[in-house]
Specification:
By secondary structure, the chain is α+β, with helices and mostly antiparallel strands. The protein has helices at about 1-5, 65-75, 85-100, 105-115, 120-125, 125-130, 145-160, and strands at about 10, 20, 25-35, 40, 45-50, 75-80. It contains seven helices and six strands; from the N terminus they run H-E-E-E-E-E-H-E-H-H-H-H-H.
Length: about 180
């Protein structure tokens, strides 16, 4: 599994935007509440654990303030350490949450991609521009990228500001059997 480490540089905190390179430094949290129709809502996010938060001066760091969330809408803050969502057991946990529909499926799918897919987190901010400029044409669809596409976007992102002349459009080298 060393190849994964070459492509993954960490996760962005959804609160402060800083990078977390160690899954033990992160936490996945959500506010369990219901909307006016009784449908569950969640506000799922990946943030720094309180003890390593760059916002150390704030009582809850990057995490939700449970009292504030309860006052807003009666929501209860819940969560687990990020490392619980990593690896095969983490994938199984994510799949079980998706199957049980305990949290909004679209938020869980995005979390699964961020945590489980090497490089996905790193290309999130670049991929729209990469598609627009023809660097990749997603074989599966928007938001779902093959590893070769992720590598192409990372490579393009690394060199795109160095010189415009080097930004030659190449055909997508990925293969889809669909």
């Amino acid at each position: 599994m060393p190849r994964v480490n070459l492509i993954r540089s960490g996760w962005r905190c959804d609160c402060c935007g800083e990078l977390m390179s160690d899954p033990r430094a992160g936490r996945v949290e959500w506010v369990a509440a219901e909307d006016s129709k009784g449908k569950p809502t969640s506000c799922l996010r990946l943030v720094h654990s309180r003890n390593v938060s760059p916002r150390w001066w704030e009582p809850f760091g990057c995490q939700y303030n449970p009292r504030d969330e309860f006052r807003k809408n009666g929501g209860i803050v819940q969560g687990l350490p990020l490392d619980r969502f990593a690896g095969p057991d983490g994938l199984m946990l994510l799949l079980s949450l998706i199957a049980e529909r305990e949290l909004p499926v679209d938020e869980l799918v995005e979390l699964a991609k961020r945590v489980q897919i090497p490089g996905y987190e790193a290309v999130q901010e670049l991929v729209h521009d990469a598609v627009t400029e023809g660097v990749i044409a997603p074989a599966i669809g928007s938001g779902f990228y093959l590893q070769c596409e992720i590598r192409d976007v990372l490579k393009w992102g690394k060199y795109r500001t160095s010189t415009k002349a080097a930004n030659v459009q190449q055909p997508n080298r990925c293969f889809s059997s669909r």
